[in-house]
From TrEMBL:
GO annotation, cellular component aspect: plasma membrane
TM segment ranges: 40-63
Protein name in UniProt: Late embryogenesis abundant protein LEA-2 subgroup domain-containing protein
Keyword match Membrane: yes
Coiled coil: none
Amino acid sequence: MADPESQMRPLAPDGVRSDEPPSTTTAVFRKPKHQESSKALVYILATIVFLSTIFLIIASVFLRVVSPKLRLRTVSIQDFQYENTNSTSLNITMLTEFTVNNQNFGRYVFENCNAVVVYGNSTIGNGVVSGGRVGAKKMKSISVVMQIRSQNLNFSSDASDRMEVMQITSYAKMTGRVHVTKIVDRRKTIEMNCLMNLNLTSRSFMDPLCS
């Protein structure tokens, strides 16, 4: 007698084994091409914005140009002649040290300039600050010999007769250019204005105050 299950099992087509499970087909869904191109465009724009931000940060830090600073650091007297008889005369040779402080990320190339010494409204001395260059984030020292020559000098009312102190001013104006790689090349003119007290009794200068 035949098995009931074998009687109910349908006959398989020729060439197909009846004990194989039925095959299943999985459909692959692909995104439309316009969606892929839109995402690529978004990525490109985001990259451009990111790189632009980085460039602006670099430019604001490394390519920004500020004015260097010119200062009178030290003053010493090499020769001193002072007469206060019928007329006051002054003949002084000073050894001075100027500094050029460059805080830029590029070198500063400067020209010769004239430093003057002023008392009241009169120019009583001068010296030449030699041109040169100072590297990025560097400070350069320059030695300058300055001469003070004055005849018939009149002391101002604020001078102390007891100490014989003269308040004088040293002024200089320097012109140069800041070179940051090959991108930035800017002209910068800097000024120095220093107040000094000259003690005629001790024949010495008090510390200069520069601005």
